[in-house]
Structure formats: structure tokens, C-alpha cells
Amino acid sequence: MGGRDEVDKWVVRSEAGKGETFGEIAERSLSRRAFLKSASLTSMAVVAALAVGTEPAAAQRAPLGLRFQPIAPTAPDVDDLVVPDGYFARTLIRWGEPLAADVPAHNVWAQTPALQARQFGYNCDFVGFLPLPLGSTNSNRGLLAVNHEYTNEELMFPGYDAKNPTRNQVDVGIEAHGVSVVEIQRAPDGNWSYVRDSPYNRRLTGTTPMRISGPAASHPWMKTVADPAGATVLGTLNNCAGGKTPWGTILTAEENFHQYFGNLQGLDADDPRYAAHRRYGMPAEQSERGWELYHDRFDVAKDPNEGFRFGWMVEFDPYDPNMVPVKRTTMGRFRHEAATIALAPSGQVVAYTGDDAQFEYVYKFVTRGRFNASNRQANMNMLDEGTLYVARFNDDGTGQWLPLVFGQGPLTPANGFADQADVLVKTRQAADAVGATKMDRPEDIETNPVNRKVYIVLTNNTRRGAEGQAGPDKANPRANNATGHIIELTETGNNHAATTFRWEIFLLAGRPEDPSTYFAGYDKSKVSPIGAPDNITFDLSGNMWIATDGAPRAIKLNDGFFAVPVAGTERGHVQQFFSSVAGSEVCGPEFTPDNRSLFLAIQHPGEGGTFEEPISTWPDRVGLPRPSVVYIGAWDSRPIGR
Ligand code: FEO
Ligand code: CA
Ligand code: CA
Q1: Can you give the residue range of the structural domain that contains 203?
Q2: Distance, CA of 374 to CA of 34 (rounded, Å)
Q3: What distances in angstroms separate CA 218 from CA 229, 403, 411, one per listed residue?
């Protein structure tokens, strides 16, 4: 292993100008004894301090604003990354790069499932930086956990025939899904590299054994011929966004899992599982990748239950490469996009997550137990007990979190719910029953550590207001919403465990000349065009940073990355910081703790082209486009955007 172990002093300035490290702030805010018991738990303590209301001094000020020269957007055929003057963007790791010393680099003419299972996966999405050592705030060395959402076989294999994939193509594709964990290190010049032979490096793929936990583990529909106990499932699929827990584990969200299961039409339409699968959008005929041609578990007619074992939130420990990942059924089953964790003043852990499909819902999960800052192990199964809620947005700017608890309200046998396991396996139907608000595709949901508000990204919904579909409402105010919007939600008492909230529209994205756009009231003549927001994050000052997915379609520009203050006179001033390459979306925005490096995942570069007729050659400039994680820094090492 290479790299340096020193822990950065992550300094924030108090009102009085006195510098304090986050460690010092945490020390003030927690029992000194508990803190000293485990010096390695500093980052957990920081999270606790932020969530329970002992705010660092920086949190008591307005955001400091942004100081970079915004870039001009690029046309969808431009195949270059663009950053502002004073910054550089470089590739950190690309699809196919080996994660062990004895693994060769990817060779398209000799690729095998076994090699792909030990190489960086395809279509990187969520990116989580976890400092090394565990519990530090080191910005120079850490683990990068990266989701691999899906595969573009037409770009991965020469002569790919979607109707007749080969066994090798199918099995490589399955291994190219999942998650990568890779150790990375930053050199003094700001350049990052990955450690090819690190013992932390790991792949989770579509075949990695995972434990099923929580109430739904015992549900009859979770049991298969291969797993009669309903306790173990092979793999995780369509891992989109995710989150980091205060105890240093990763949550990876299984999103569009339905697309991997074919032949629903082969299941008896009177079988109750038929309707359940239809509600989740499973295709009637051959699936997009045809995995069921070689693996019966992906054929719904042959194995009607395997599909119920996907659509969950998966937790794993990136610091322990031998840990068996766990599907936490308490957090519901739907097309999970995100998993953002916040702490309530009580110490209860709250996870915000959404169902990314048109007219689907926003959820949060609140644990029964409380976060233990001094005993990491005590938190490891915290997510197995708690309450799942779904959001109702009222037109008057108020809202409720409606519990999805068996026996409460309509969630009874009379309405088709036998027990809590049933409520969780059929989360969408339960949310329908309680009258939640149908949203314009909930993508990322993130909490702002400075103002503690919750931001919900609705990426688009072109069917809103179409014939036979729901029309606009106050929370989803545009018919044919092609460009998306962002809602700002304030929990009652700033308590993430509250069951009521207030909300308002923060942004209605689009080209600013579009009269339906809204930038929190900011002067539209000064903002950058932005379309289809997807993933967001916040810098140390609480400014929002937005990655987009779908701008080429929505506003005829390449996807990019944008910054916008959420407070003060600059609130709503959207400025473009980064533009991506042809055919790609931008994902996984993640700052190092010192904000001096930024990681972005460039997903599906060249989508729309084929292996034979590429529209992108990024990043190698020869041959295939390769989904990759890039890092961005300033030439003078200043924090990003400052
Ligand atoms: Fe995979 Fe919701 O984007
Ligand atoms: Ca997404
Ligand atoms: Ca998306």
C-alpha cells in the first residue's frame, strides 16, 4: 500500500476568527470521555455534532459564495471535458483497469467474466470517498467506493447483437455491474492515483453473495429454488446513487432492477406475483440484455421470485473486504436512487431515498436505535429496525411523512397486505394506498450540512399532464416537465426524524429564456442554462453543486456540473463549472474533506454510438469510450470554487 497517513487539519473559521479543527468541534460537542475512548472515530463524531445541533461556526454564517469564472456550455457532439480557468480535470480510473497486481488490463478481444470481476466495472455512478485510516478526515489517502449502474454492450463488444448475446457477453455484463472499492492517494502536486494491489480493493458484482436482512427476509416471495430460506441472494444490480453512514459503511441503491428480468408474459396473469412485477415495470418479453437466455433466475416464468430480491438498499463495509453485503429490507423495495444519511437530535439515523420513476415517491427511513459514536460495531445492524415513511406534499407548502407500517391506516389484510414483510416487498403499492404524492422522478436527495435543509432533485417527467396522466400540482408544477426541478424541504424543528415538514420550490431548471424556469428568484440573465438535474452535493460553505443527466435531450447541451448558493443574495445564482463529453452524464459528485479535490463519474460516454461507429473516444482518444472517474483540482490548490 502506498500513500500517506497523516490526517488533514480540516480547519473552519469561527465568527471570532479563531481556527478550529473539526476534531475540536466534535470534542466540544460530545462527552469528552466518549470521544477520547476512540480517537479513530473522529469523523463519526463530526457527523453527530452536525446533526444534533452543535453546529460548527461555519454553519452559523451565510455561504461564502463562489469565485470561479463560469464556463460556456458545450454542444452535445463536443467530446472534451471543460473546466474553468485555473482548474484541471484528469482521469483517475477507467472501466477495465485491474484492481489487483495479477490481473491484466482490459483487452476487448480477450475479455472474460473472471477478469471483469477483478477489474473496474462499467458506467460509474455514485462515488463515495472514505478517508484512510478509518475515522480520520484525511484528504490525501482513502477508499473510493464507486457504483457501476449498468452496461452498454453495444460499446463494450464488437459485433454485439442485442437479440442474440453470447454467453460470454452476458456473463461479462453481469460482472461489470455492481460496485468497486479502490484505494487512492493524492500526491503533493494534487494528482491522484489508484493503488492497484491494495488489500482494500474489491468488486461487488451481479454474482456476489449477499445476505437478506429485516422483515422481508422471511417473505414467501423472497424464497427461490436456489435459496429456499430467502436469506442469500447473488449480486446487486443497477446500483445508481448511494450514501455513506456515520459509521463508515456504504449504502448502494438498486435502481432499475426490473430491466434484467425477462419473460413476465410466461407467468400466469392470475398469479398475484404477475401484478406485483407489473407494478414495478418488468418487461413482458425478452429483457434488454437477454440474461435469462443463459440464467433461469432472470426468467420470471421459470423463477418468479428472483425479481423480488432486487430493488433494495444494500449496505457493506468498504474497510472490510471480506464483509458479506446486506440487503436491508426495512428500507423498502422500489427503484432506489439515493441513500443520504442524517442524524436526528435523538441520535436516530435517518436515510432519505427516492423511487426514480415517473409519478413515484420520496421516502425516508428512521431507525429505532440510536447512533453510537464510540462503538462502531453497535451501529452495524442499526438499519434493520425502524420505520419507513413516504412523503405527501400539500399544496400549501406543508407536508407529512406517512408511515408504511402494517396495521396502520389502509395497510391491512383487507387491502392486500398480510404483514410488514408484505408492505416492504410491495412498497410501491403501500405508498399508493396511503396517498403519497406522485413526483417527477425523484433522483438524488441530499441534506445540506450547513442549513440542515433537505434537497430533493426531480429530474424530469415528460408525461406530467399528458392524456390520462396526473396534471401539475404545486410540488410538480410543470406539465411536460422535460428539464426537472429541485425542492427545498425543511423538517419541523430541523429534526430529520420529524413527521411533518415545510417545502418550497428552489429551482425550476431549463434554459433561462424559458419563461417556466425559476432560479430561487435570482436574475435569470445571469444564470447558466441547466437541464435534468440528478446528483447533488454540498461544499463546506453549504453551496449546492449539481450534476445533470439528460441535458442533451432537455436543452440540447452536454451534461455538466454546476454550483449554486442556497442562501444570501447569491441564492439561485446557477453557474456552470464543468462540461462533460459526448453521450455521457455526470454522476457521483464527491469532494474530499478539504474540498481541494472533486471526483466526478463520467457515465456512459459515447452512448448513442456503437463499437463500430463511436461518437466518443474519451478518455483514451483511441478505440472505445470508457466510463471513468475523473478528479478536478485548482492549479494553486485552492478549495474548489473558492
Ligand atoms: Fe440511475 Fe435515477 O438515475
Ligand atoms: Ca441518478
Ligand atoms: Ca438519472
Answers
A1: 22-92+118-147+161-223+240-255+311-600+617-634
A2: 6
A3: 7, 21, 19
Helix intervals (H) in 220-352:
272-279
Residues 6+ apart with CB under 8 A from 485: 440, 458, 476, 477, 478, 505, 506, 507, 508, 509, 533
Q: Is 282 exposed, middle or buried (0-12, 13-18, 19+ CB in 10 A)?
A: buried
The predicted pLDDT at position 339 comes to 95
Ligand 1 centre to CA of 69 (Å) is 29
| pLDDT above 60 (res 430) | yes
Q: Residue 60: pLDDT band by 50, 70, 90 thresholds?
A: very low
Q: Report the alpha-carbon distance of residue 420 to residue 409 in Å, rounded.
A: 13
Distance of alpha carbon 112 from alpha carbon 116, whole angstroms: 6
Does the residue 275 lie in any domain?
no
Please check whether residue 298 lies inside any domain of the structure. Answer: no
Which residues contact ligand 1 via a Cβ below 6 A?
149, 240, 255, 337, 356, 443, 534
Residue of 365, 342, 373, 95 whose CA lies nearest to 243 = 342
Q: What is the distance between the alpha carbons of residues 535 and 337, in angstroms, rounded to a whole number?
A: 9
Torsion of CA 421, 425, 426, 430, to 10 degrees: 40
- Give whole-number Cα distances, 231 to 113, 251, 253, 296, 330, in Å: 25, 19, 19, 19, 14
How far does residue 585's CA lie from ligand 1's centre (Å)? 10
Please count the structural domains in the chain. 1
Partners of 485 in the beta sheet? 458, 508
Coil vs helix vs strand at 329: helix
Asked, as a colleague might, if the bond just before 533 is cis with ω within 30 of 0, I would say no
pLDDT at residue 594 tops 50: yes
pTM (2 d.p.): 0.91
| Spacing of C-alpha 435 from chain mean position | 26
Burial of 19 (0-12, 13-18, 19+ CB in 10 A): exposed
Confidence class of residue 65 from pLDDT cuts 50, 70 and 90? confident
Burial class (CB in 10 A: 0-12, 13-18, 19+), 505: middle
Closest residue by Cα to atom 1, ligand 1, is: 240
- pLDDT tops 90 at residue 24: no
Residues with Cβ within 8 Å of 269's Cβ and at least 6 positions away in sequence, in order, are none
Rounded Cα gap, residues 29 and 578, in angstroms: 37
CA end-to-end distance (rounded Å), the chain: 33
DSSP symbol at 494: G
CATH of the domain at 560: 2.120.10.30
Confirm whether 318 is domain-assigned: yes
Query: What is the chain's mean pLDDT, rounded?
Result: 91
Give the residue ranges of DSSP H helices in 295-410. Answer: none
10 Å Cβ neighbour count for 31? 11
Asked if the structure places residue 32 within a domain, the reply is yes
Which ligand 1 atom lies nearest to the CA of residue 356? 2
- CB contact at 8 A, 284 and 276: no
Contacts of 246 (CB under 8 A, 6+ apart): 43, 44, 47, 48, 341, 343, 349, 371, 373, 379
Around ion ligand 2, which residues have CB less than 5 A away?
240, 443, 534
Distance CA 151, CA 433 (A): 35
**Helices (H) then strands (E): counts for the chain:** 10, 33
